[in-house]
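Researcher: Here's the sequence for the chain we discussed earlier.
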Amino acid sequence: MPSQTYFNLPKEKQERIMDAIISEMGVHDYDAFNIASVIRQSKIPRGSFYQYFVDKDDLFDYFYAYVAQMKIAYFGNLYTGEQDMPFFDRFLQLYLSGFKFGFENPKILKAAKKILTSEHFSNSEIIKNSLKQGIDLFVSFIKKDQEKGRIRETVDAKLLASFLFEFSNKVTLEEYFKDEADFDKIERKIRQLIEMLQKGIE
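Model: Thanks. This is the structure I predict for it:
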């Protein structure tokens, strides 16, 4: 993560640096990512950059954390569990809100399209921890529904949470990554998936 020196910078300068990082991520994948381009776009001395970030890995890890915090703020109380609602309703709203976040932040969406296919992304400890935290959160929501009688007690909460994370991405990301992504098509797919899970296929 960035040094305290970075966090001591004025907000405007932090945002200028992050804008440059996100722009470069939208053009090049991890291997071709050019720190010199970030330094040039953000108008900072090269020496200053290395006072903020140790290396490229440090920069990418901060980007993941930065976007995660933005999304949590965007989701509001959907993510905190303060609002009582059936798990599948919450999952649908969280999932669609995630796509809307991307469409409303096109630079981040462009960067994400490059990053998600990189080896660094799949090997990042931050990503692994985020996935675990997301699954654990879903497990807690599922167990609350089991206590309320909304989901059968015999359902393996962790298995269901893991399945939703993995499979829902597989059936929608292809559409999401198109140059002209069709949000309505993504929504139809995820609603159909949820309906199959809720009602069964027999």
